[in-house]
Write a structure and sequence with these properties.
466 residues, alpha/beta, four-stranded mixed β-sheet, 16 helices, elongated
């Protein structure tokens, strides 16, 4: 988003922790300043700020402190760091100090997920109670996944240095604990999710993760704006990770990509066998509880091939690896994520399966369509927003959708795909439909420009004189 907004002429500044993983890249960072004291309760902290220049006059500001010098961003070996509340409160306070230094030059602070949500509350309190900060930029808070809320013991509230007035049901209190996500929902000037349908879904008990009532109370400032994808990286005409390049007007090389992929994973090279694929975290959110039995059934009754790339729950990984041993010429499991392989899978597969229990946005279904690989998705969140079912709209269809969260519904969707694959003319028609979809960030950036401008007008509009 920032990259596209910068291309459109906006002055973009990014603020992020200087994680160990970033340090390991040995980027040409420049020392900018030291900020402090930053009080965390009664304890004074200080942070070091580094910068990195980006195209279109953008700058990344990295906040450096020992709490970010760890092998994982938020957790290690599946366990969250016990001081995550402290880490991201410190980051939030440092980021706000940077924003304060920019003063009236700053129009919008765009916050993401619970890790930065407290900035909305800190800024609101500062605006109300600190006469030296008379200017307040608007805040836009994006919820990428409402399940992840940053809920901590009440003891961490002392590190906010805020009065207890905010520790209420209307504020950040949540069943006697502190809920960081509530700070963003309650105190940001605008709230977005990463797809239109997900914005509607989180207002319901099924998807609201316990915050549906609070979200309903703030629904007037909630909007769903679909994420975009990097169409320069994900481009079958120029992709450096594939040997054969193609586009919607010349699909023939896609078959060569399929044969390369079959050879790479040890499958028989069979151009007339439908090749299915999934790239995912092996979690319940991504639908593993229906994917495993569905694949097992389809492999037993149909001549297909299936490639799964991902990792997660060790027991689930073991179950899929067992499936690969039972069907070595039909099922392949690659444990872990591999960027190059992901590109080759998108280019070589015929269908891409995403059976998520819920999906705020999803990216792979958009990558897939860009590569003429038809997605099979459940009608939730961004999956529903980005795929047009060929039965719902035979003229504009781009994939296959199913509704029930069950192995039976997924099996039926895969069997629809097998029938479609056997109709070569229809298959080519829908591939081209999919490849003509626009999932660039240009559309999303324009929607955010409109949202920012509307929010600024709403909040800056002078009171009527009577």
């Amino acid at each position: 988003l920032g990259k596209t907004l910068a291309k459109k002429g906006h002055k973009i500044r990014y603020i992020t922790p200087l994680y160990q993983a970033v340090k390991d890249l040995q980027l040409p960072l420049h020392l900018h300043s030291t900020l402090g004291p930053i009080y965390m309760g009664s304890y004074p902290e200080s942070v070091t700020v580094y910068t990195l220049a980006q195209p279109n006059d953008s700058i990344v500001y990295f906040i450096s402190h020992p709490v970010f010098d760890r092998p994982g961003l938020y957790q290690w070996q599946g366990v969250d760091y016990s001081d995550n509340a402290y880490r991201f409160l410190l980051f939030s306070k440092a980021a706000l100090e940077l924003c304060n230094a920019w003063g009236p030059n700053l129009d919008v602070i765009h916050l993401h997920d619970w890790h930065t949500a407290m900035i909305a509350l800190l800024l609101q309190h500062q605006s109300n109670h600190n006469p030296t900060h008379t200017y307040k930029p608007i805040t836009c808070f994006t919820i990428h996944n409402a399940e992840y809320q940053g809920v901590f013991d009440v003891a961490v509230y002392q590190f906010t240095n805020l009065p207890w007035d905010y520790f209420t049901m209307e504020g950040v209190e949540f069943y006697g604990k502190v809920n960081f996500l509530k700070a963003g929902i309650g105190f940001a000037d605008a709230i977005t999710t990463v797809s239109p349908r997900y914005a509607r879904e989180i207002l319901t008990p099924e998807f609201g993760a316990g915050l549906e009532g609070y979200l309903q109370a703030h629904a007037s400032k909630l909007a769903g704006i679909l994420n975009g994808i990097d169409i320069e990286e994900w481009d079958p005409e120029t992709d450096p990770w594939i040997r054969h390049h193609y586009n919607a007007h010349n699909l023939a090389p896609k078959l060569a990509c399929k044969q390369d992929l079959q050879m790479e994973v040890g499958f028989p090279i069979q151009p007339d066998t439908p090749l299915f694929a999934s790239i995912m975290r092996l979690t319940e959110q991504k639908g593993i509880s229906i994917l495993l039995p569905a694949i097992e059934t389809v492999l037993s009754h149909h001549n297909i091939q299936f490639i799964l790339v991902g990792n997660g729950n060790p027991h689930v990984e073991a179950a899929f690896k067992n499936l690969a041993q039972r069907f070595p010429q039909k099922f392949h499991m690659h444990s872990g994520f591999n960027r190059a392989l992901s590109h080759r899978v998108e280019a070589g597969a015929d269908f891409f399966v995403l059976p998520s229990r819920y999906e705020p946005c999803g990216l792979n279904q958009m990558y897939s369509q860009r590569y003429g690989t038809l997605p099979i998705v459940r009608r939730v969140g961004g999956l529903d927003d980005t795929v047009i079912d060929i039965a719902d709209d035979p003229a504009r269809g781009t994939g296959i959708k199913f509704t029930d969260y069950s192995p039976k519904a997924l099996i039926e969707a895969i069997e629809r795909a097998i029938s479609l694959f056997n109709n070569k003319q229809a298959m080519e028609y829908y591939r081209r439909n999919a490849m003509h979809q626009d999932f660039s960030w240009d559309r999303s950036a324009s929607a955010y420009e409109t949202l920012y401008a509307r929010t600024i007008r709403r909040l800056k509009q002078p009171a009527l004189k009577i």
